Amino acid sequence: MDSEAYSTELSRQHKAFSPSRVWAIAGNTFTQLVRMKVFYFLLIFSALIIGANLLFLSFTFEQELKILKDVSFGAMSLFASIFAIVGTALLIPKDMEDRTLYTILTKPVPRFEYLLGKLMGILLLIGVSILLMSLLFFTVLYIRQHGILAEKIASLPRHASETDIESFRESIFSRGLQPELLLGVIAVFLKAAVAAGVALFVSTFASSTLFTIIVSLVVYFIGHAQSLALDYYFTQGELHSAGQRFLAGLVGVVFPNFQLFNVTDGLTAGEVIPASLMARLVGLTAFYLTIYSLVSWMVFAKKEL
Amino acid sequence: MLMASVLLASAGLLRLPFERDMELEFKEQGFRDWSPGLSTRDQLTQAAFVGALGGFRSLVASVYHLKAHNSFVKKEWGDVERYRAVTASLQPKFWSYWDMAVWDMAWNAYGHYRGEAEEYGNDFRGWHAESIIMPRYLEKGITFAKRGLEWLPEDYRLMKVIADIYDQKMGNPEKAAEWYLKASQKPQAPSHVYRAYAHQLTLCAGREEQAYRVTEDLYRNSGNVTLTLLRDMERLEEDMARRAAHDRSYDQLKDAAFAEASGYLEMAAFAMHLLEIRKDVPAAISVYTKVADNRRAPSFYRRKLAFLMAEDPQKAAEAYTILKDLAVSYPGALRREDMARLAELESRLGIPE
């Protein structure tokens, strides 16, 4: 086979989009991030939830379990968002600094696959981190709710009936480890995924890692407040000028709505989120990630490296 | 970059109505129960405000709950009130925050100032604590509970806590009965809330008939005759019998007692007349015996009969038997002071302890 035929054969075999190439980049990105010793954060997380578990024993069990859930979800959300923004902001500059980017892109790897692989890698890292945090959180919550029940049973008079104990068990466990908490964990992941999408887009045109982090944090913050702005300017539309409403609308169009992903506040207070709403939240995240991947590619494809 | 911006804007326009729908659905499900108003901004620190806005509202509420607890330990009631207000407004659908706010105001702060009032007695500080501050904290407690009810209208516990304040702190059985009744009508309310309503009703002047209807219904149909219920029933029937005994003539009462369709209540009124107006104890004993024999008559009539009989040396042994039987069968029918009377009867009869 002459060289021209070999080249034709190669290009015939080369697929325009290959999930295995994306997966290889994702795996590599994950390893790269793990080597940065990011999982040490788990020590801080453990200290936080164990501290929350031990320090607030003088409250009612309802409040005690709520504080434990609040601290755990709060820390989980914070860590996941930091990973999403900082981790993603580091990826492209680090690859450029290490020259890995050039090694990859000189091979027949489309830039879109590279970006997608990077995004998948960071999502994998966030997913694993959240999984580990959830396991810790659920274990501590499980132990605590059984501890509370044992304390309650010990404090009951001797003639307390099985019905009394059962009623206590039901009351404590309904505020403890419940399947609905998993939906909260998923929502934390979804929010972090969107934040990672934003950071990926910003990093494609950013001049430095710091710029990416700052801009992404600003977007993250505005994203939490944009629904309030829309609510304020549009529900009482007649009170505000057209210019104000246009600006509020513009903010709503440009910035992602992170407030939608805040379901843990309601869950810890005992609200129940319907599965259909959760499914729509997953769909919305997929939409955000698709759009951010596309716009990132549009900018990155034209970028001079 | 231009194409990317156009795509971003188009996607934004596409998702806005979808997100709006989701927001509305979240609101319906109770997930959007907080909006940061100016008053909240004033009460929260800047960091807490940003945290609450940035998706850590529940955590910020927990932090303020801890701050409130800390202020409670230091007895800084103004701060307790402020922090409790913030905590409850951050998560208004979490019942416990309202309950803690009520508890801190109407029990803890109130109790603290009651101690101050007792300490300073009649001087100005004592008067100020008792007449100005203490009632104000009770009102604050009630206000918190009512604000909580705006968010949790089906929660019996906040209604019950208002009733508890009227009952235990304000001594207002009318209002207490009103709130216990409201609470008892809520789906999760346990049966003791309705019993508390019945008890408060028995304390309301001028509502004796209504109180008796409710109490008797509980006595006969609830299957759970508590000591309070038994005492309320006894007090109400005694009052009814006494009123009749004083208001009606001997003949009227006798005719009513021995009429064919009469019940034990008419008989009890006649017995009361014999005892308190005519002072005819043997005749009263004879009629009370008939009352006690009525199967519908509560056990306290046997107690009354036994102690009347105990005064008569010839009937003392029989009275002792009735009382011993009551002590075994219906221990609730006897009171603490009855034990001393029983012991005295035993010594009179020469029965070893």
Account of the 3D structure:
The complex is a heterodimer of chains A (305) and B (353). Chain A is mostly helical. Chain A contains twelve helices and no strands. Chain B has 353 residues and is mainly alpha-helical. Among the domains of chain B are: 41-152, no CATH class; 154-224; 299-353, no CATH class. In chain B, helix 11 (208-221) packs across helix 12 (227-247). Chain B starts with a helix and ends with a helix. The model of chain B has no long low-confidence stretch (mean pLDDT 89). Classes of the chains: A mainly alpha (305), B mainly alpha (353). At the A-B interface, helix 4, helix 9, helix 10, helix 11 and helix 12 of A face helix 1 and helix 4 of B.
Number of strands of chain A: 0
End-to-end C-alpha gap of chain B: 102 Å
Estimate the global geometry of chain A from the Cα principal axes. globular
The averaged pLDDT of chain B comes out at 89
State the order of secondary-structure elements of chain B, H for helix, E for strand. HHHHHHHHHHHHHHHHHH
Largest sheet data of chain A: none
Poorly predicted regions of chain A are none
Strand content of chain A: under 5%
Rg calculated over all Cα atoms of chain B:
31 Å
Helix-strand pattern of chain A: HHHHHHHHHHHH
Helix amount of chain B, in percent?
A: over 70%
Strand content bin of chain B: under 5%
Unreliable segments of 5+ consecutive residues of chain B: none
Tally of separate helices of chain B: 18
